[in-house]
Design goal:
Layout lengths: L8 E6 L4 E6 L5 E7 L11 H9 L9 E5 L13 E2 L11 E2 L9 E3 L3 E3 L4 E3 L2 H11 L5 E5 L4 E7 L2 E8 L1 H11 L13 H13 L4 H14 L4 H19 L1 H4 L4 E5 L1 H12 L6 E4 H10 L3 H4 L4
Parallel strand pairs: 1-4, 4-7, 5-8, 10-13, 13-14
Antiparallel strand pairs: 1-2, 2-3, 6-7, 8-9, 10-11, 11-12
């Protein structure tokens, strides 16, 4: 028989596709974790509370407060947590939104995202990872890159997000490799480091040729025996390389830290290394928990 979990507070990262929760101890340690596929995109507004209770119900004996981030605070989420405008700190307790609940055991606060007016851009969830990265690296000034479906590059100075830019690199990779004509030459996957590096270098030297280089992957598979692993890896390199070419004002001559999943961050780190940039890497989960901890009254000693 397992011991019951009695957290001081509960951390929640609620994305479009998935819901993740952690039972947190008073010292910031993880007591338990759970996840489900009840992402924002699958729920109606009245479905959020039941989805959360299904996941964390066993942890609520002590009525631990819940601190959430991500798409749960979007217009299509549980309740909207309005964007804050950069330049600003990544998180602000005063801007948290209290979600409407019917279960007396629940007290759920949601962190708002960030917006930029020119050029227009938004983020939800990444601001919490940025706040966590700054807790893990006190006094950090430089650039944070958050690879993912929609990669973010953020300029950080004096504890504030000064500006940021989003790139749809991950989504483009998924669409091209799974739903375009290129998919026929990428069945089976695998990884070819030389192919990836060639794609990065090609894209950085001639980013305007991306459309032509993409179709070359299909043609080489048909007439030159390009392997699926080489095609998939070169596609990744072409897209990441094109992103780096566009994001050059962010990383050139700057201190760069990557916050993301291990494999994807490693690919970005390799692409940056080809340009002479040695990037630091942090875990996305570690940064998310550190960011949510900055909003937890149990960690900071602020009564609710």
């Amino acid at each position: 028989m397992t011991n019951p979990v009695d957290p001081a507070w509960i951390a929640v990262d609620w994305g479009t596709s998935n819901l993740r929760a952690w039972a947190m101890g008073p010292d910031g340690c993880v007591l338990a974790e759970a996840s489900s596929e009840d992402g924002m995109g699958k729920l109606t507004r009245d479905g959020f509370e039941p989805a959360l209770l299904r996941l964390i119900g066993p942890w609520l004996a002590g009525r631990a407060p819940v601190v959430a981030c991500g798409m749960v605070g979007s217009r299509q989420g549980w309740c909207e947590a309005p964007y804050r405008t950069v330049p600003c700190t990544p998180l602000d307790r005063a801007a948290e939104v209290l979600a409407p609940t019917t279960d007396a055991r629940l007290r759920v606060t949601i962190a708002p995202g960030l917006k930029q007016t020119a050029p227009a851009d938004v983020m939800r969830g990444e601001e919490t990872q940025i706040a966590g990265a700054l807790r893990l690296m006190p006094g950090y000034d430089g650039v944070l890159c958050l690879p993912g479906t929609h990669s973010k590059w953020a300029h950080i100075s004096a504890g504030e997000v000064v500006s940021f830019q989003t790139f749809m690199t991950g989504e483009m990779f998924a669409l091209l490799s799974e739903a375009s004509v290129l998919r026929h030459g990428m069945q089976g996957g695998g990884w070819d480091e030389a192919g990836f590096e060639a794609g990065v270098s090609d894209a950085l030297s001639r980013p305007e040729r991306l459309g032509a280089r993409l179709f070359s992957l299909r043609a080489e598979g048909l007439i030159a025996g390009l392997s699926p692993a080489a095609a998939l890896s070169r596609l990744s390199g072409l897209l990441i390389g094109t992103e780096l070419a566009a994001a050059k004002p962010y990383w050139l001559g700057q201190r760069v830290t990557l916050v993301g999943a291990e494999r994807l961050s490693a690919a970005y780190a390799r692409a940056l290394a080809l340009q002479g940039v040695e990037a630091t890497r942090l875990s996305a989960t570690d940064c998310t928990l550190a960011g949510l901890a900055s909003l937890s009254p149990q960690i900071e000693g602020v009564p609710r």
